[in-house]
Amino acid sequence: MRTDDAGAVTESNEAGQEDQTDLVASETRGLVVLTNDDDFGRLGRKEPHAGIVCYSPQDHEPGDFAKAIKRIDHYFEPAAMHGHIEWIENWL
């Protein structure tokens, strides 16, 4: 994963209509998606992607959340994240 290039997408679409577009765009740029949107987990099982990092509860402490992301970033080479879905909760 790379931490020097990031973009943010806010919830502005209806029922995941643009989720596939966002997933394709991230794949094209080689960027891992960080999301709490379950649609990406479902899409990631059938569509190519550069990697998806999901989280469910939104009550994680910011410091713990950041540490988990750093652990994932340290553990996975970019090629290993390609097509892979990882859960933040496994790294807290």
Verbal overview:
This protein has 92 residues and is of the alpha/beta class. It has helices spanning 19-29, 38-44, 62-75, 78-81; strands at residues 33-35, 52-54, 85-87. A three-stranded parallel β-sheet has the order 1-2-3, covered by helices on one side. The radius of gyration is 13 Å and the shape is globular. Strand 1 (33-35), helix 2 (38-44) and strand 2 form a beta-alpha-beta unit. It contains four helices and three strands; from the N terminus they run αβαβααβ. The longest helix is centred in the C-terminal third of the chain and has 14 residues, at 62-75. Helices cover 39% and strands 10% of the residues.
Features:
single chain; alpha/beta; 92 residues
User: Would you list the SSEs in sequence order as H and E?
Assistant: HEHEHHE
- Backbone CA Rg: 13 Å
Helix amount: 25-40%
Average of pLDDT: 84
Widest sheet: strand ordering: 1-2-3
| Secondary structural class | alpha/beta
Largest sheet: 3 strands, parallel
**Helix run count:** 4
Strand content: 5-15%
Cα shape: globular
* Beta strands, count: 3
- Cα(first) to Cα(last) distance is 18 Å
Unreliable stretches covering 5 or more consecutive residues? none
InterPro entries: DUF5615
Domain DUF5615: 5-72
Protein name: DUF5615 family PIN-like protein
Pfam families: DUF5615
